[in-house]
Amino acid sequence: MRVRKSLSVLLSVLFLVAIGTSAYAHAQARWSQAPPDQPVPRTDQNSSIAHSQLLEKAKKGGIDVYFEGDSITRRWGATDYPEFLENWKQNFFGWNAANFGWGADSIQNILWRLHNGELDGVNPKVIVLLAGTNNVGNRPPPEGDKSRALYITQGIQAILDVMQAQAPYATIILMGVFPRNDNMAVMPTINRINENLSKLADGKKIRFLNINDKLADGEGRLFEGVTAPDKLHLSLKGYQIWADALKPVFRELLGPPATEDHAPPPTGDPSAQKPITPPK
After folding, report:
1. Positive or negative, the Cα torsion across 6, 8, 9, 15?
2. Burial class (CB in 10 A: 0-12, 13-18, 19+), 76
3. Contact assessment for residue 207 and residue 198, using Cβ atoms and an 8 Å cutoff
4. 206-209 and 171-175 beta bridge pairing
5. Largest CB tally within 10 Å, which of 16, 63, 123, 161?
């Protein structure tokens, strides 16, 4: 009887796990089918707080260079990554640069933030956009399937459309999706995306900038020390490579950096901020 009861319990647990796995897979399938030009909000509390902070940052004005993207962009100018923030200041002080990246954002999430106030009234002169790696993920599509690259390209085109509508006088620097080596099998998809993105640029109002040959070899294998151990996020060395590629363009479009900077103070990940202890 004990064996039969134990077997019954085990089967019940396996059944519940199967249901949970099926529900998760169904949710993932629904997410992957979201149109690339469809804004999708992040509903977790931390992202909601971050969105509010970025709205306040946008309202303060004084922004000539507007960085947009996911965690690779965000970490560069964030208070919770002080070493990267110091590098940000060393490279961009005097150009009034502000960072509006948010970690783990997909293209659809960035679209939602742009549709919900984070670029309203900012009127930057230059926008730097790096997006798409979270839509690529670390799992390659079936061999020969080019649909993911097309899907991501369409999504980035939607971001460009919103940016040009809200900041018509800005020059957009469209970055190529950086190599990721957490699964080398996704590199063909990234290469297809970047080939597509190069065709979205007109060389004037939208400029395509691909620095992947400075981050990786011809096969997309990242050079030593340019990323964190996860082989996705940039290291200090990687950020400096990015800065060295951007600064000549900034000088061309904005002139040399000024001796003062009027961009609003940097923000960070709300969950990383230590609570303030009230005085006794």
Report:
1. positive
2. buried
3. no
4. parallel
5. 63
Instruction: Determine contact, residues 102/70, Cβ cutoff 8 Å.
Output: yes
Give me the residue spans of the domains in the chain.
Answer: 35-270
Non-local CB neighbours of 219 within 8 Å, separated by 6+ positions:
184, 187
The 10 Å CB-count burial string (b at 16+, else e) for 257-268 is: beeeeebeebbb
pLDDT tens profile 224-253 = 999 999 999 999 999 999 999 999 999 999
CATH 3.40.50.1980 fits 35-270, yes or no: no
Q: What is the pTM of this model?
A: 0.87
151-201 pLDDT per residue, tens:
999 999 999 999 999 999 999 999 999 999 999 999 999 999 999 999 999
**Tokens describing residue 273:** 């901020």
> Distance between CA atoms of 156 and 81, rounded to whole angstroms?
27
C-alpha span between 53 and 114 (Å, rounded): 14
Residues whose CB falls within 8 Å of the CB of residue 81, separated by 6 or more in sequence, listed in order: 75, 268
Distance CA 155, CA 174 (A): 13
Q: Collapsing DSSP states into helix, strand and coil, what is residue 245?
A: helix
Helix 187-198, helix 147-166: angle, nearest 10: 40
